[in-house]
Amino acid sequence: xxxxxxxxxxxxxxxxxxxxxxxxxxxxxxxxxxxxxxxxxxxxxxxxxxxxxxxxxxxxxxxxxxxxxxxxxxxxxxxxxxxxxxxxxxxxxxxxxxxxxxxxxxxxxxxxxxxxxxxxxxxxxxxxxxxxxxxxxxxxxxxxxxxxxxxxxxxxxxxxxxxxxxxxxxxxxxxxxxxxxxxxxxxxxxxxxxxxxxxxxxxxxxxxxxxxxxxxxx
Amino acid sequence: xxxxxxxxxxxxxxxxxxxxxxxxxxxxxxxxxxxxxxxxxxxxxxxxxxxxxxxxxxxxxxxxxxxxxxxxxxxxxxxxxxxxxxxxxxxxxxxxxxxxxxxxxxxxxxxxxxxxxxxxxxxxxxxxxxxxxxxxxxxxxxxxxxxxxxxxxxxxxxxxxxxxxxxxxxxxxxxxxxxxxxxxxxxxxxxxxxxxxxxxxxxxxxxxxxxxxxxxxx
Lengths: 218, 218
Hints:
- The complex is a heterodimer.
- By secondary structure, chain A is α/β, with parallel strands linked by helices.
- Chain A has helices spanning 42-49, 82-93, 105-113, 129-143, 159-174; strands spanning 2-13, 16-27, 31-35, 57-62, 67-70, 147-151, 178-182, 192-196.
- In chain A, helix 4 packs parallel to helix 5.
- The two termini of chain A are 31 Å apart.
- By secondary structure, chain B is mainly alpha-helical.
- Chain B has one domain (21-217).
- Chain B has ten helices and no strands.
- In chain B, helix 6 (87-116) runs antiparallel to helix 7 (124-148).
- Classes of the chains: A alpha/beta, B mainly alpha.
- Chains A and B meet through strand 5 and helix 2 of A and helix 1 and helix 5 of B.
- Chain B: Belongs to the CcmB/CycW/HelB family.
- Chain B: Keywords: Cell inner membrane, Cell membrane, Cytochrome c-type biogenesis, Membrane, Transmembrane, Transmembrane helix, Transport.
- Chain B: It holds the Pfam family CcmB.
């Protein structure tokens, strides 16, 4: 069963096409890692798949409400505690009871998975960059969504946390989920396939005219 | 959507949330006017309804840019856009939270501040009625302006320029209701207009603001 199918996709950043003609299928239990130099359009492609911007051309086929998106900003409120932040997202996505950090429920499991139990009551403002990142990734676990779309998930994580996150992804894949990510480091995932975007770089000379009126505003 | 409302209310009351700032600004404005125009009631009484409504308007304006800008900065807005709740619902809930933390305290404090401006006690019910009916439109129109300017740096001034002209009808009918109440006439007509404006704004703006947010998230 495929969770995500992308056909002949073209995405644009600031009105200019970044990559075009990208096609891939992501099966349940598999991960796809986007590779390519800076600026090729990995983030734009991920935002398009997450539904934050419309594709310029091509199709994205997946179920509604399948995507859990995690990017450079973790969406944390500094005035709230670690468990409070997570409980909020759990309630929004309705993936957990949001019962705080007492070890039961989706929030407790997510805190344990990312080794945040000891910090459950600490305000998010008092976390280090790596700890914030771990909390942002723990949010993925409480969404209950099958398709994780991850943009550089390992930024500011130490080696132990990267291993921990790798284990979380592996558990997610084993449970029938899948992951689409852009990362420059090796997470050691046997289930993962690489997709190099370099051959798909949009050639400026090939299509002068925008595909549609809206492309100018995309 | 209830968790989002609860989170916004919690954030407003925590450190740095800005709860009470609008009322304090309203108080200072109403306290400054007698210094400017002189304390005798003959000078203050005719302008009191206008000053009170202008004060409410400006106090409301103070916190408008927080509606979406903070969520945009920390990435929450991207995550809310991928959450199961519709963006229109997000807009409506955040405008409601803004009204509960800004508009409602202004309504509660207005009779007291009316005393500073020598507003006769007979006009207090009409002051309260016009503010209760009119301030929801201020928060909702403000949410629209905030959605348009969300990605801009230093968008606060632009937001004021965009939103203040939209406040004109509410201001006209709000002050007119109090003035008619003061003169013993029937304030029903301006109050009905005020209610009509608020109802139309509450019904239509969430869709417009959500569309503006979608464009700004790209």
